[in-house]
Amino acid sequence: MYISRIDIENYRNFESVTVEFKDGINLLIGQNNSGKSNLIRALALIFDSSVKKQLTIDDIYNNISLEKLKQHSPKISISVQLSQSDNENLMGDELVTVSNWLTSLKEPYQAMIQYEFFLPESEEARYLEDVMQATNASDIWQIIKTKFIRHYINKTWVGNPENQVPIDGESLNKFDFQFLDAIRDVERDMFSGRNTLLKDVIDFFMDYDIKSDKELTEEQQTEKIKSRRESFEIVSKELIEKLQERLESGNKEILSYSNDIGASFDDSMPDFEGKISENELYSVLQLIVKQNTGMNIPISNNGLGYNNLIFMSLLLAKMQVDSNGKYLGSNAKVFPVLAIEEPEAHLHPTMQFQFMKFLKKNIKEKKVKQVFITSHSTHITSSTNLDDIICFYKENGKTGISYPGKVFYNVNEHQNSECKEDSKKYVQRFLDATKSNMLFAEKVIFVEGIAEQLLIPIFAEYLNKPLEENHISVINIGGRYFEHFLYLFDGNKDGTIKRKIACITDLDPTRKEKDSNNAKSKRCYPYELNVEPMKYKYSVNDSMVKYKDGGHPNIRSFTQDEVFGKTLEYQLAFENENSRLLLTPSLQNYTELEEIIILIEEEKNTEDLLEKLRDSDENKRIMDSIRTANWGTWDEELKKKAVFASRYLNSVGKGENALELSVALKENLEKRGTEEYQNFNVPNYIREAIEWMCEGL
Length: 697
Prior knowledge:
This is ATP-dependent endonuclease. The chain has about 700 residues and is of the alpha/beta class. The protein contains 24 helices and 22 strands.
């Protein structure tokens, strides 16, 4: 059995939402204030007996329309569905526990429990009368706060909600819901054996070598443990006798006060006697940290991160104790659930990976049935299967839910299922700690390589549109693999993350000889495109054309101009043909490029620029192609841009040059407003992408 779904209405930030869960781990990620913690608290309202069930007006969703508030008093409703697990033993305690909750007897069976916080029907007529003349919602909320919230009641039903069958406490007590909130003080709960958590864990695991020995019968186990307890009683009795011996003379002095005050009568007087039980000795045990040096330090001196891990391990041990039928009999829990807010608090990345590995191991060993985690950590996200992730996002002020592991499948498109499975595997492998940031960002720009990833944030600052202020992340996908990731964000489909997505890709013009059977496409320059149609077959990168010019509600692609475009590096030089900012230290042909810039500044003609190119096969190709370029398209100024752009493109090493250029552009930006500042043109297609991303959606 597992919690398979929750339906929430009018609770905190949720007007109406349905969230589906998996058996095992459920990782809830997303923006701040999107409702992750509120969902955990909604579960706790039902399953955690320590949570106060009577809510306040602040717990009611406060953006209900005036019209609805006049029709009926606001009501909170939280419904949880439980479903049969795979390979579940139907003769086990789980089905028995929810036998009165069942809504479907067919396998897999389904059960339901519903919590409601509402105004009783007896008060409804008075409520409607009081709010009748209200002209705005805030007035009605004030009326509810002053007159009606104290009359609100809570009820918990099981089975079909229409039948309103009340919950019985015995069944609900079979659920062990442990909730570690984000603001937690774990140290106070594990200083010593006086604490209930430690005390119960110690008591259960005392003599565990005997209890876990499967070669012994239950009677043999009981007999061995009994023998150990008898031995302990002998030792403890000797300790008490030694104390009494040491206290004998002093005892007479102490008791003399009793005689003097008249507390002794009828030949009787006070004395000291004692017995030490195992349970009483637990309180003297303290958690310590043993170091390799031989030194022991108190747990309170340990780091917060390690203490969090230790506490969670103790909590899972306690859950194992509470679910052990042999130990607790009919009081044992049958459904242990662990909910943790922001486990990454105080944990460095390596410990976060270890934490997730630890949880998966406990799920596999069935020490806990289901785990719910809220997190902002890319490290925890990257160490979690896509199928285990539930993404919360805001859309038009309301919370939306996405299931990244499900978006690759469409039951109506069986012919594409294999391709989509490949995409799912690709994305799963790709989501390392950096790339998983795409699941948290409000807007995402996907780029092909490291150069764009390094430079686009700087370009945005030149446009006075800083990416961080517009909540935009730039994700380098290492090639033209956009479609794999767009399954996650396709706004035309249910269950996806409704985000504004820009894909920036290169035009990459190519040509292939027509007369050769073994000819392969080779890159060509823009001024070579379509020049010799009888000899070559030309093409450009059109893989993202369906996302151009508003063809999709939330995804758009941007690439260089179809006539003058090629790659990022080419476009940088083509639109900044006289900028020395491009001349970075690692650039090859530095002097040659600088001389070309000088000739452009001196307004020399194209031939003057071409003469500066040193002898090489590639330069000869550039020279020949530019000289024969179509003058109807390529005038003198455009040809000079092309000479510089072509030479620059063949002089850069992408990664190193991009890093140096980003530093140079950043330093130049800091000089804005001074005479030292140099103008720089952001390539037009990137400008369009950034400006579109910064518009509202």
